[in-house]
Amino acid sequence: MRLFWEITKTSYQRYLSYRAATIAGLITNFFFGILRAAILIALYGTRKEVAGISLQGAITYAALTQSIIGYLSLFGWVDLMNTVYTGQIANDLLKPMSYFRFWLAQDLGRAGVNFVFRGMIVILGYSLIFDLVWPQSISQWIALTLALILSWLLSFSWRFITNLAAFWTPNAYGISRFFFIFSWFFSGFLMPLRYFPDWVVKLSYLTPFPHMLNTVVEIYLNLVQGPDLIMALLYQLIWIAVLITSGQLILRSGVRRLVILGG
Amino acid sequence: MVFALNIYRRLLGAQVRGQMQYRASFFFEFFGAILITLFEYASLALVFDRFGSLQGWSLGEVAFLYGLSEISFGVMNLLFGGFDPGTFGIEIRRGTFDQYLLRPINITLQVLSSRFVLRRIGKIGVGLGIFITALNMTSIHWNIAKIIYLPMVVLGITFFFGSLFMVGSTITFWTVESIEVINIFTYGGSFMISHPMHIYPNWLRRIFTYVIPAAFLNYYPALYFLDKPDPFNLPAAASFAAPLAGIIFIFISTAFWLFGIQHYQSTGT
Q1: Tens digits of per-residue pLDDT, B46-105?
Q2: Is A171 in Cβ contact with B43 (below 8 Å)?
Q3: Measured between alpha carbons, how far is A261 from A263 in angstroms, rounded to an integer?
Q4: Which 3-state string (H, E, C) describes chain A?
């Protein structure tokens, strides 16, 4: 476990040093959040509440999604894939820890930097411009914290699988982007899932994506409570188990056919 | 000129063949480009019923903006792909830009033909589809002037964003690192003009009207095509500024680009 935290720490410091990228990400999040909030405000018009979400809640949704998108890295992540193509993976596979945990530790560092320096700054920044909704009770804060941790774990298990495509083809960037695009829509990043017609919501919940983002949104906005909340967290856990297991199976068959070119 | 066109055609042909080599990858990239545009639009279209209008604009009217913006940005991305600041910055950093300087062919032509990404045709196709649904949902009173003006609007938007790509790339001559903030104006600008400008906060709309003339590219022409009144009471000529804005921007950015080449210093890698 010490090795795990050491890798996380090194990775955290490495991502901390990418200042220009962090600032660029911040500005982009701010800008797109304002556009998305403006669209939602225009859609609401004089309505106070739509599909259980108040106008203030909708604006908070725009701020919240922009602030955790970097933390979850839902826009795409090809770090693992890159090491397959550079050959770095040969060293990584020899490390005295499981390949999944090695990357999990690194991603925790990346997520940490993004959570603190993008997530918190973005949402605090928005709270200066807009009147945002905040969680109301200790239990809601605890549920939110749990949901945030689980959604990172889930998003990582998913990203891990998409990157394994690099074991099979010499150019898997298109394939991974293709899969990421589904996550933007079905996770509720483009619009809160509640606004959509029933069939779209049902379709979304056949995939793991709503559990990566929409669950966090719904808990934050206090749209799920009591037994539903417990179920929401449970679903996150189930999907994590499913994706980690599939990831391990795919990795096992991938490593067997991996050819590392010297260079 | 004939020589230049011939070279352009050949370089493009080589790239198309190159991209078709990895069939599976091309397939995923092509359908990915289609899906992303489709999902973005669908996320608005599917919830529209619940809300009824976007501050006075119907779905068909918004789709008009959306379609035009997607088509034009797609065409721009296809033609000006070599000037994409993200990838151009990598060429500067790696020093591969130096290769262009050694060849006996116009540098701008080489950059223009250095990244012809075929998958973007998918995005243009979806844009056309959205535009056609917009025509079905609205009843535009077409006349000769409108028919002639429509392609000029597409040209204006294409040139405008192309010039932003050129400026973004030229800046990397000095910064070496690609400056990601330019994405706000390119990708952000295209997302912004896909929606009516009157929904944005005043300060933001003013910046994108008077500092960066994005409002004239799509919103004001759309007011003319859809026969809608201008809520900000600008002169009627505002609806016809799109091609002019595009041409002025492309002239300025070309001048800046040529100036940049003159002052280029290789990173030496």
Answers
A1: 999 999 999 999 999 999 999 999 999 999 999 999 999 988 988 888 888 999 999 888
A2: no
A3: 6
A4: CHHHHHHHHHHHHHHHCCHHHHHHHHHHHHHHHHHHHHHHHHHHCCCCEECCEEHHHHHHHHHHHHHHHHHHCCCCCCHHHHHHHHCCHHHHHCCCCCHHHHHHHHHHHHHHHHHHHHHHHHHHHHHHHCCCCCCCCHHHHHHHHHHHHHHHHHHHHHHHHHHHHHHCCCCCHHHHHHHHHHHHHHCCCCCCHHHCCHHHHHHHCCCCHHHCCHHHHHHHCCCCCHHHHHHHHHHHHHHHHHHHHHHHHHHHHHHHHCCCCCC
* Residue of chain A minimizing CA distance to B192: A35
- Minimum CA–CA partner of B180 in chain A: A24
Q: Give B49→chain A minimum CA distance, Å.
A: 9
Question: Which residues in chain B have their CB less than 8 angstroms from residue A178's CB?
Answer: 28-29, 31-32, 35
Q: Can you read off the two tokens belonging to residue A59? A: 């604006």
The residues near A54 (Cβ < 8 Å, ≥ 6 apart) are: A48, A133
| B21 CA to centre of own chain | 27
Q: How far apart are CA B44 and CA B42, in angstroms?
A: 5
**Residue of chain A whose alpha carbon sits nearest to that of B37:** A181
Nearest to residue B261, comparing CAs of B169, B198, B128, B142? B169
Greatest C-alpha distance within chain B: 60
Would the pTM of this model clear 0.90, i.e. be above it? yes
pLDDT in the model for residue B137: 96
Chain A residues near residue B22 by CB distance under 8 angstroms: 169-171, 174
Q: Is A100 on the interface with B (CB under 8 A)?
A: no
Nearest chain A residue (CA) to B195: A39
Contact A31 B177 (CB under 8 A): no
pLDDT, averaged across chain B: 92
Share of chain A above pLDDT 90, in %: 83
What does the block give as tokens for B244? 């002019």
Which pLDDT belongs to residue B66?
Answer: 97
Contact A161, A100 (CB under 8 A): no
Nearest to B150 by CA among B230, B67, B31: B67
Contact residues on chain A for B39, CB-CB shorter than 8 A: 181, 184-185, 190
Instruction: Please tell me the distance in Å from A195's CA to the nearest CA on chain B.
Output: 6
State whether ipTM is beyond 0.90. yes
- B57 has which bridge partners? B54
When CB atoms are compared, the residue of A38, A51, A190 closest to B39 is A190
CB B127 within 8 A of CB B215: no
